[in-house]
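Model: Ready when you are.
Researcher: Fold this.
Model:
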Amino acid sequence: MGVIKAALGDAILTSLWVFCSSTLRILTAQVAVFLGLQHVSLAGLFISTILATILVFTISFIGSRLLGGARFNPSTTISFYTAGLRADSTLASMAVSFPAQAAGGAFGAKGILQVVPTQYKHILKGPSLKVDLHTGAVAEGVLTFAFNLVILLIMIKGPKNPLLKVYLVAVATVALVIPGSHYTGPSMNPANAFGWAYVYNKHNTWDHFYVYWICPFIGAILAGLLFRFLFISPVKQKKA
């Protein structure tokens, strides 16, 4: 029952993340216009980072305080588990939570399309492959590797201040999204990618699972293994 409850929390949190994160581009443009900065170089990047910081902090608070430690990104669960930092995660629990997160992603994507004004719907496309299949798969894997390694470094070895941690996560995310936008979107979150693929009926293809699930999982596992090798000392067993 505990696994089912946790998976339900993951589904709810993932739907909130997909619903809210998809509006960042729209909100960035609106804030820039409101402040009269739409023609200022790098203003959009700064605004996006601040909005992403607020969003990540809010979603993290909801997940940890209101939903019992719920998570919204399967790749970070994998990387922390591989690094030996998820004592509460098992292969069985992940086998339940990942489909729940995917369902939450689909619910969030469908939800935002129902409420967003018509003039903005063309912006809400979600991650999509912009290069050939194998190049995209490698790119998504590398981006997810970098994303998870940075997350591990910030959360485990980074500053103590939680708000500063979240800000650094937002900066890293934006920094990876910019180059990744020319390849796969990018997603760096299989549940988010699945949600948008489901909306546009592209979720049940080999290309989708290859690019947005298999390669990101490989990248996340490698990030966890590298972090574990570099920073986590093996437990030395006492001699009897």
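Researcher: Now this one.
Model:
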Amino acid sequence: MHKIEAANNGGHDAFAHVLDLAYGRKGKLRWEIIEPILSDSNAQIPAPIIPSVKKSQPPVYSPELQTLLTSSDSRRTKPLSLKSLAFPPTLPSRANPASEDARLLGPFSKRREVNTRWRYFSKEWKKVRPPLQVVLTNTISEETQFATSSDEVVRAGIRGIGMQGRGVFEDIKAIVGPVITPKRLTRRERHGDGNATCPKTTRHPSRWLRRRFQELLGRTPVLAYSRHTDKDGLIYGKYSVSLPENALAPSLRFDSSRIPEVYTSADQQWLQLTSREDEEKPNSKAAHVDTRL
């Protein structure tokens, strides 16, 4: 109750805490979103590390979890490498029977290897920020197409995640609105052109609330599944992770989507003038050098 009261009073941290609970960034909902991708029913069951103990099988990293673990946009800490997933850095080198340490010091305990692998698996997936859904990206056609409905996901042969097809992620983006809003017309432009109208946006009117949801988008990665065609003409799919273009995150600070567009003719003339001056500067310098010679 204290958190909710502080959030209603405009507390930044308290409001972020409420949003994280509501959208599965922490708490029980976070576990419900990420729990299905902690296993892969389509993967081949690995052989047990201890042959006589069936429960000594190493953990299986699903394709979705592998992508989330190896991307900086979906991690609170440094992303992992695929090599770390196959051989955790917490294992000593003598866990590899072909290593020099194994030859000198003897083989590593198989039971300790099982415990170390599972401990590393549990430790690292807890650092993942789960996505709210899977976005299907069709890059085979001429135009890039996006789909998030549950039916489209099933037809693509993959599984949905979290709040798939419910429009929750789209609602957050609608509250935030575009990164750069259209420039408002000046009084002269409004009176000079009778057909000119002020641009309208559908974002939330409160800037403080938009900033809080922008920060939420920075903690909500987008897991996309795209289909590609290799050089032999075979179609294959792969996952990728990114952040929404209107999220508030350090990695998007200098993104190209944050560069404002040119809206007025005066801005275009100013850009043309500055570019012309930049082109003339080297010529004038060269002419000055020739005069001295």
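Researcher: Key takeaway?
Model: The CA atoms of residues 137 and 226 lie 5 Å apart.
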